[in-house]
Design goal:
Layout (H helix, E strand, L loop, with lengths): L1 H11 L4 H12 L5 H13 L6 H24 L4 E2 L2 E2 L1 H27 L3 H27 L4 H27 L4 H24 L12 H4 L5 H7 L4 H13 L4 H13 L2 H20 L6 H15 L3
Antiparallel strand pairs: 1-2
Length: 311
């Protein structure tokens, strides 16, 4: 990870002083860096603990694209905070934030092209397309509040799981190009991504301080699994009250609290937790096909961390 840090900073460097200042700010406020870790651990598990330059490039591309999507997300959501710090748009305004996001995207693409890593470029390009589709599908459905569980899974598969799937397939493709492992690791990453997003949705119903205020999904009319399950399993009268609360009273703190309490009471959280654990078990099952090693063990720990994390 230390060596990756250096390579990643090099991948972001530019002659424009303002851009360097902003990318420096981004690098110094990095998150958990789960995504590059998935790239490295998958590559090492499949290649007897060895990684090559292509693996570092795969990890850098993922981090560049992921960072670009976060910068653009904050503009779209009009969010002033990211991981407890000011967002790029809060400090430098939307115009600069959008351009910085575009710059990071193009740097990621060029890193692949300059090294003829066209298979890696395809993996990451599919992920970028799916993230955009997932976000737009969510916006479209939020207007009508008519999300079924299947549509919810499709949204989170595209919005969140596709990037973690790309990390794992990039890790595999970097050391075993064109092998069956590329697809099986993609499936593994997708399952973790599904569990990861359900866990994120559950935070919205918690009391803990996790860097984002609870009830925010309800305020933004985002339909998450606990809410969808309850909506599809309560009386018409209760449905009407829920939909009215989300559509017309989502800024009323007391009403949002009542919605959260109702979802808990109707077992919305228990249902979401059971679904999250199903994805977790499927991911762990896929790993069992590989020989025991410290890298496989670390990947198992990562899968469990996704479920047990506190923020």
């Amino acid at each position: 990870m230390d060596l990756f840090e250096q390579k990643f900073q090099l991948a972001m460097s530019t002659n424009v002083a303002l851009l360097n200042r902003i990318t420096h700010y981004i690098v110094n406020r990095k998150g958990k860096q789960m995504r590059p870790m998935f790239v490295f651990l998958v590559a090492k598990m499949l290649n007897n603990g060895q990684i090559i330059d292509r693996t570092y490039r795969g990890a850098s591309v993922i981090e560049l694209i992921h960072t670009a999507s976060l910068v653009h997300d904050d503009v779209v959501d009009d969010s002033n905070r990211r991981r407890g710090f000011f967002s790029i748009n809060a400090l430098w305004k939307n115009k600069i934030a959008v351009l910085v996001g575009d710059y990071l995207l193009s740097k990621g693409m060029l890193l692949c092209i300059d090294n003829n890593d066209f298979d890696l470029l395809k993996i990451i390009s599919v992920a970028v397309r799916e993230i955009s589709e997932g976000e737009l599908l969510q916006i479209e459905k939020a207007r009508k509040l008519d999300i079924t569980e299947d549509v919810y899974y499709e949204i989170i598969r595209q919005k969140t799981a596709t990037l973690i799937a790309a990390c794992c397939s990039l890790g595999a493709a970097s050391v075993k190009p064109n092998s069956s492992e590329v697809e099986s690791m993609r499936q593994f990453g997708e399952l973790i991504g599904m569990a990861f997003q359900i866990k994120d949705d559950l935070f919205d119903y918690g009391e803990e301080k996790i860097g984002k205020p609870t009830g925010i999904d309800i305020k933004e009319q985002k339909m998450t699994l606990p809410l969808i399950h309850v909506l599809n399993n309560c009386s018409k009268k209760e449905q009407d009250w829920l939909i009215n609360s989300i559509k017309n009273h989502n800024k009323d703190k007391q009403r949002v609290k009542e919605v959260i309490a109702f979802v808990k009471e109707k077992n919305g959280l228990d249902y979401a937790i059971s679904k999250m654990k199903e994805f977790q078990m499927q991911a762990l099952q896929l790993l069992k096909a590989y020989p025991n090693s410290e890298y496989r063990n670390s990947l198992e720990l990562m899968v469990n961390y996704v479920i047990d994390r506190k923020k």
